[in-house]
Write a structure and sequence with these properties.
Layout: H1 3-19, H2 22-34, H3 40-54, H4 57-64, E1 76-80, H5 90-99, E2 102-106, H6 113-125, E3 133-135, E4 144-148, H7 151-161, E5 166-169, E6 173-177, H8 184-195, E7 205-211, H9 217-223, H10 233-248, E8 260-263, E9 273-279, H11 282-291, E10 296-300, E11 308-309, H12 328-334
Parallel strand pairs: 1-2, 1-4, 2-3, 4-5, 6-7, 6-10, 7-9, 8-9, 10-11
Amino acid sequence: MELINRVDSLIKLGQYIAEDTEKLQQAIRLAGLKNHWFTQEYCYKALHAITSQMLEEDKIKSWIKKYDFSQVKPKNIGVIAAGNIPLVSFHDILCVLISGHNLHLKTSEKDNILTQHLLTQLITIQPEWSSLITIDERWKEIDGVIATGSNNSGRYFEYYFGQKPNIIRKNRHSVAVLRGDENKDELYQLGKDVFEYFGLGCRNISLLWLPKGYRFEDLLDAWHPFSNLMLLNSYKNNLDYQRTIYLMNGTPIVDCDFVNMVDNLSISSPISCVNLAYYEDEAEIAKWLIEHDEQIQCVVNFENFERNVNFGASQSPDLDEYADGIDTLQFLIEI
C-alpha cells in the first residue's frame, strides 16, 4: 500500500473515532466490563488523545515529513502490547502501519477490545489492510519486535527476541518538580498528571520533588476535584490497604482523604500513593535524574531534563514524543 493511502485511511480512522458511533460506544462499554479500570471517562480520554495528537491530518503529515520511507522493504514486525491504560500501545501500532511493515500484534488481555475494534474499523475503511494486519498469539516469522512490559517480562522478551532487531521496554515512571510558587491552575494540571487513569500509566507522576518546608494547603485544595477516584472500589481498596500498611509501620502520611503521600525517595509508588522528596538546591534534582534516567519516562516542570513536559501534558504526548526517548519510527525504517 502506498504511503499516501496509509495516511489517508488513518486520518479517516481518526474521523471515525470523533463521530462516536454506536459501534464505538458499545466497544467502550465492553472494554469497561472486561477491565473495570477502563472507565468510560478514561476510554474517551485515550480516544481523544489519539484523534487530536496522532490522527489529526496536519499533525500526522508534518510528522512523516521528517522521515524517508523510500528504502523501506516490508517486513513482519511483532508488537507485544501493554494493557495498563486504554489503547496504550496505539502509538507503536501506528508507527508499524505508517512505516509500511506488516503488523503482527499480541494484544494484552486487559486491553484487547478497543484495540481490535479500531483495527477492524481501519480494515473496513481500507480493505487492503486486511493482508497487512494480523492479531495472533503465536508468531512464526518475525523480523523485528517492539515489546512493552515489566522488568520481569522484559527479561523474557530479551531471551526470546534478543537476536532480532528490537525495542524492549521495561518499567518506567515519571516525576514532577514544584518550586512552591505554582498557581491553582498549574497545581490542578499537575493533578491530571498524577491521577488520570488512576495513576496506572508510566507517564503518571509517582514521585514529587518539593522545596523543603513546602506547605500543602494549596496543592490539596487544587487536587480536591480528583477525590472522585474513590468512587471506583478498586482504587478505594488500594487506598485503604496502603494506608493501613503505612499506619502499621508508623509511616507519616500527608493528611488527604483520596491519596497517600509519603516521604520516600523512590521512583515507584503503589496505586493511590505518591512519593515525596525534598530539595534545597535544584542541582540535587538534576543529579538524581541523571542517576535514574533509565527508570524515568518523563518529568513535569523541570526544563533541564530532556523529556520535560508542561503541567497537565504528561498523558498527551506528541507524535514524536517517543516512549523511552527511542525513535520508534526511525527504528522501523532502518530495520
